[in-house]
Amino acid sequence: MITEGLKGRDFLRLQDFSKAEIETMLEVGLQLKADNTMRRYHDDVLRRRTLFMMFFNPSLRTRNSFEAGIYQLGGHAHFLEPSATRLPTLEGEDLGYASERIVDMARVLSRMGDAIAVRILGDVVGWEYDKAFRIIQEFARGSQVPVINMEDNIYHPCQGMADAMTLWEMFGKKLNGRKIGVTWTYGTSPKKPIAPHHDFMYVASLFGADVVFSHPAEMRIDPEIEAQIKANAEASGGSYTVSDRMEDACEGSDIVYAKNYVCLDLLPPVTKEPQKDEMMKLFGKYTGWIADEKRMNMAKPDAQYMHCLPCERGAEVSNEVLDGKWGYACYDEAENRLHAQKGVMACIVP
Ligand code: CP
User: Fold this and answer.
1) Distance between CA atoms of 190 and 193, rounded to whole angstroms?
2) How far is the CA of 159 from the centre of ligand 1 (A)?
3) What are the structural domain ranges in the chain?
4) How many helices (DSSP H) and strands (DSSP E) are in the chain?
5) Per-residue pLDDT tens for 157-211?
6) Using CA atoms, how far apart are residues 297 and 292, in angstroms rounded to an integer?
7) Same CATH fold, 159-334 and 14-154+338-348?
């Protein structure tokens, strides 16, 4: 497999890679997955490499899939608790000895290890929409080793790779002719990220699916990402349509991807401060937007429900869906975080 041109690259967002490069990383991940089932872990691939992981937000899947993944490839993950380092800052935010410039932290860590992975989003950056991605870009600017984005407010490329791998496993590498329904759902928190929706639709459209996206009018996605999804659909022979009826994402679908996410128009930069009470009032108008049996029965008989997890049972999805015949793809999707990220690390980490 040709992985030329990938070694040493940062993995900040899917948009930085060609379709062929994304396919290569997925194929490497699938090869490693196939070998995993035979307990062949290829621990020579990244032997003695160190991945520094900096989490500003909680995680189950991302942390554990990276730790297990680099260990299986022969390396080691080092978990950095931001509260145990000095506050990482951008220019103009310095707090004397209590903080350290991100660019300097990245320069130092990249002299000790072989890759740096960062998750930062939400409250940690006051919901300032692009700030978390700018911070990850700043890590990349200072680092001499690849930087991996483990989720910011806009992008969750590792999740997107696992989603693509899960779709490939179900339908093959071309998703043409497959209807992938994607929808916003109700949720009881004003903090659920929009990035997984962005990257799920990015990969579904990249590989030719007919994406039907349902959301209440107020729950738009990022227009720049939406334009990329449309362009992907055009280039791949797929399609992208938008509706304000949840049923349109469910009827006749092969997949129903249904998850809550924040209202961008109640967060900076549209508003000065996050309008969390307003957001909950708004969500309260749409409590019926849940992936339940009635909605899943509108999909194809063998349709699957997808969600990046963690999900909110009883709000985003019913127990009957998650625990029933529609639920297994969710857990494949979670498992594939491990295999997809091994593919990415094997390709980009020198
Ligand atoms: N899907 C996902 O990123 O899960 P975690 O927040 O648990 O890492």
Assistant:
1) 9
2) 8
3) 14-154+338-348, 159-334
4) 12, 11
5) 999 999 999 999 999 999 999 999 999 999 999 999 999 999 999 999 999 999 9
6) 9
7) yes
* Spatial separation of the C-alpha atoms in residues 342 and 27, rounded to whole Å: 11
Strand partners, 214: 183, 243
With a 6 A CB cut-off, is 318 part of the ligand 1 pocket? no
Domain 159-334 grouped into CATH 3.40.50.1370: yes
Structure tokens at 130: 């692009």
User: Distance, CA 61 to ligand 1 centroid (Å)?
Assistant: 5
Report the alpha-carbon distance of residue 218 to residue 271 in Å, rounded.
14
Cα–Cα distances (Å) from 189 to 252, 282, 309, in that order, read 30, 12, 14
Q: State which fold the 14-154+338-348 domain adopts.
A: Rossmann fold (3.40.50)
Ligand 1 pocket check for 59: Cβ under 6 Å: yes
Question: What backbone torsions phi and psi does residue 210 show, to the nearest 5 degrees?
Answer: -90, 100
Residue 92, token pair as written in the block? 């103009």
Record the pTM: 0.97
